[in-house]
Amino acid sequence: MKYSIFSLAKAALSGHKGWGRAWRDAAPKAHYDVVIIGGGGHGLATAYQLAERYGVRNVAVLEKGWIGSGNAGRNTTIIRSNYGLPGNTGFYELSMKLWERMEQDLNYNTMVSQRGIINLYHSDAQRDAFARRGNTMRINGIDAELLDQAAVRKMLPFLNHDNARFPIMGGLVQRRGGTARHDAVVWGYARAADRLGVDIIQNCEVTGFVRDHSGKVTGVETSRGRIGAGKVGMAVAGSSSRVAAMAGLRLPIESHVLQAFVSEAIKPLIPGVITFGAGHFYVSQSDKGGLVFGGDLDGYNSYAQRGNMPVIEDVCEGGMALMPMIGRVRMLRNWGGIMDMSMDGTPIIDKTPVDGLYLNAGWCYGGFKATPASGLVFAHLLATDTPHEEARRFRLDRFERGAMIDEKGQGAQPNLH
Amino acid sequence: MRIACPFCGERENGEFTYLGDAKPKRPFVAVIEDGKGAEGERDAFYDYVYLRDNVAGEMSEYWYHGGGCRSWLVVRRNTLTHEISSVEAAPGTGAAVTEAAIAKAGAQ
Question: Cβ B55–A301 below 8 Å, yes or no?
């Protein structure tokens, strides 16, 4: 069923009894042209793009739990393209452009809201760095605007502008940035892919790879039996090392836990996304009214999907420094997601040294905003065996070649990216 | 998560800084020169700097007790549960220096 004002009106008049399933509960077939491991946003977007843009419709998405149960449901829903390095600028802007037309493309309300994102600066040096990044963005056709102290004070009067150590001196705004509804993104891609014939197979954990005599991957072993595949794409950020290890690969990735937080719902307060430049704290407000915020990684390797107290304390201190009135709001809940932290803070989208196996990994904590572009470029790679123009720098061998894309300049220490 | 420092007793993990997996050993050049030459050296450093086992389960790792005795520690911890099974001091465990390699380097 195509969703429209007419389908809504029709369903409303019949007591909303006519809504069908948004996607089929598919059982695995014996063979697919392409099998995608991982039913998160990236895996589903890849399947959708394969079917929609590249005409590859004999595709399955395998998900060990339920779709969107991993990082797709654990992020802080921010979309932006305010990057400064070649490779990142074009890729994330491609993603932003896909966000802007996603609801029409998918015929699904993903609640994309371009309410703006502002990165605050607190020193002369930080202003210079932000001005440089803003200029880089504008040269690349991305919107950016450097605001001074007075403009930020007018835009966000409730912040602590006169903090003795970290006065707010201004901010870099991307007005096209904002938020989207993360679960709806998963559901929208699942529904759109399903309508094009993609099988979405849940509760189907991959337990190994099937290889032929030459070592080529020809399928996967799963908890629901063996499934043959012409090509296998991995989109399992958080668990990439574990899945790759089944094919004998070691990756330049560590898995780390990142916590996120939401407060009780309050009346509309925060117009967009605000990031504190003197600590690591960022905050937005969901449509339900809760303040959604987060900060740094916990810093140690983890697959536990939960973090510890020091980071909770650090994030809340950052919040109090930036907007002291947040202290009157109660925290509703917090959770953790597992990040594929790559060695330069940038994703990897490439063929692997194993024939027939393709990798989409290393999203660090930038995976959500990348969802639509990640699906497009990974589908391009799977369909054509050549990297998409905007992903040609995201190669697996870039560490060996010394061609890192290290936006933060931290070096090969994943917990600092 | 609390870490029982052998010198300071059990402390909350905010006092500690994490380095990572204690398994990779910095390649010792004299050892490499003994082997495949410059190519081998490059590969060994690539492996050491960039590739990780990224263990899901028990892993030995380096932690630094910056908020206490400032010692480097080797902590045996489960990455699936955060359970810590042992904590030891870690002096001299950073480089893969074998006695044979030292003898060879000394002879040159």
Answer: yes
Q: Give the chain B residue nearest A342 (alpha carbons).
A: B50
CB A198 within 8 A of CB A39: no
> Within 13 A of B96's CA, how many CA atoms are on the CB side?
14
Q: Are A257 and A305 in contact (CB under 8 A)?
A: yes
pLDDT (average), residues A134-162? 97
**Range A68-104 burial, b when 16+ CB lie within 10 A, else e:** bebbbbbbbbbbbbbbbbebbbbbbbbbbebbeebbe
CATH number at residue A50: 3.50.50.60
Q: Is the pLDDT of residue B94 over 50?
A: no
Chain B residue with Cα closest to A305: B80
Average pLDDT, chain A: 96
Q: To which residue do tokens 């790879």 refer?
A: A209
Q: How far apart are CA A110 and CA A7, in angstroms?
A: 18
* pLDDT of A257: 97
Contact A326, A308 (CB under 8 A): no
| Residues A411 and A316 reside in one and the same domain | no
At B102, is the pLDDT very low, low, confident or very high (cuts 50, 70, 90)?
Answer: low
Same domain, A266 and A338: yes
Token pair 């994309």 in the structure block, residue = A112
- Annotate A203-236 with DSSP letters as a single string: S--EEEEEE-TTS-EEEEEETTEEEEEEEEEE--
The SS3 call for residue A98 is: helix
- Residue range(s) defining the domain that contains residue A102: 26-107+182-252+344-416
ipTM comes to: 0.91
Residue A316: CB partners within 8 Å, gap ≥ 6?
A331
Specify the number of domains making up chain A.
Answer: 2
Q: For A289-344, how does the pLDDT look when each residue is reduced to its tens digit (9 = 90+)?
A: 999 999 999 999 999 999 999 999 999 999 999 999 999 999 999 999 999 999 99
DSSP β-ladder status, B17-21 and B58-64: antiparallel
Residue A305 C-alpha, separation from nearest chain B C-alpha, in angstroms: 9
A217 neighbors A28 (Cβ within 8 angstroms): no
Quick check: A299 contacting B, CB < 8 Å? Answer: yes
CA distance B55 to chain A (A): 8
Residues in chain B: 108
Which of A261, A103, A257 shows the shortest CA–CA distance to A181?
A: A103
Tell me what pLDDT residue A314 has: 95
pLDDT in tens, A159-213: 999 999 999 999 999 999 999 999 999 999 999 999 999 999 999 999 999 999 9
CATH number for position B94: 3.30.2270.10
